[in-house]
Design goal:
This protein has 12 helices and 10 strands. With 256 residues, the chain is α/β, with parallel strands linked by helices. The radius of gyration is 19 Å and the shape is globular. Pfam families: ECH_1.
Length: 256
């Protein structure tokens, strides 16, 4: 059985699904390696322009595998390859939409936060419960969560370890959209199809700028955006998009 499944339904969309139902999709070494392999493959697959990252209908991911790390030493944690897996996800250049049903806890919540858009079901629950098992988040929970929701909401989630509902997560800016549980995957897929049909160089640039700009002073980020904006005028899709608008026809984008 493979812990991470890839589907390529066509139209520039890929689906990456975590498949470890017996442990609520806990992120053990096999799942982490599977995710890294999947995203590394999709990075270089020119047919793929947007990715949906999903768990099951019951759980997105219940965090790092507690059983696998309960007796680990710092050296074992350092050498377990997790850093590499997260780096592949962090550096993935194409838009990723997380489709979240059920639990998204600890490393699972951190995984969702690696996505660019999060679609959550009404029954989804997000949390960073690491403190309850004597550790802290290790894949961006203290940083990405704080950037997403602000210090005071993040502190409450991190310091109590209590999960929040999808509606609460949406209200604080952790979730892009909440839909009925049974509609999560279809909605994520529909959005992925919309994005995959748009100029892919522009989509990748937007992702790069939003992420890189968040770590820069405003003026430096604006300058970076301006230069990228100018470069867009060297793409085939820019010419096609603007000509199609003027000629009152649908554009045919080629990703060039
Ligand atoms: N690790 C290992 N096994 C797990 C995990 C987990 N995180 N979560 C659930 N399971 C297993 C259970 O042990 C159980 O197995 P078994 O049937 O063999 O006893 C099975 O999945 C089903 O779980 P439950 O019976 O507990 O199901 P419930 O519906 O009663 O509860 C919960 C669901 C609320 C999700 C509950 O399982 C839970 O609290 N899980 C732990 C959540 C947690 O603490 N997550 C944080 C882990 S630490 C972490 O993520 C650190 C991140 C660091 C960086 C990332 C590195 C990858």
């Amino acid at each position: 059985m493979s812990e991470v499944l890839i589907e390529l339904p066509g139209s520039g969309v890929a689906i990456v699904r975590i498949n470890r139902p017996e442990a609520h999709n806990a992120l053990n070494a096999a799942v982490r390696a599977g995710l890294a392999k999947a995203f590394a493959e999709l990075e270089t697959n020119e047919e793929v322009r947007c990715v949906v990252l999903a768990g099951s209908e019951k759980v997105f991911a219940a965090g790092a595998d507690i059983k696998a790390m309960a007796e680990a030493s710092p050296a074992e944690m350092t050498n377990n390859g997790a850093d590499h897996s997260w780096r592949v996800l962090r550096e993935f250049s194409k838009p990723v939409i997380a489709a979240v049903n059920g639990w998204s806890l600890g490393g699972g919540c951190e995984l969702a936060m690696h996505a660019d858009i999060i679609i959550a079901g009404e029954g989804a629950r997000f949390g960073q419960p690491e403190i309850k098992v004597g550790i802290i988040p290790g894949a961006g929970g203290t940083q990405r969560l704080t950037r997403a929701v602000g210090k005071f909401k993040a502190m409450k989630i991190l310091l109590t370890g209590e999960a929040i509902s999808a509606r609460e997560a949406e209200a604080m800016g952790l979730v892009s959209e909440v839909v009925a549980d049974e509609a999560v995957f279809e909605r994520a897929l529909a959005l992925a199809n919309v994005i995959a049909a748009l100029p892919s160089i522009a989509a990748r640039k937007i992702k790069e700028l939003v992420l890189a700009g968040a770590d820069l002073p405003l003026n430096a980020a604006l300058s970076m955006e301006r230069q990228a904006f100018w470069l867009m005028f060297d793409t085939v899709d820019q010419k096609e998009g603007m000509r199609a608008f003027i000629e009152k026809r649908s554009p045919v984008f080629t990703g060039k």
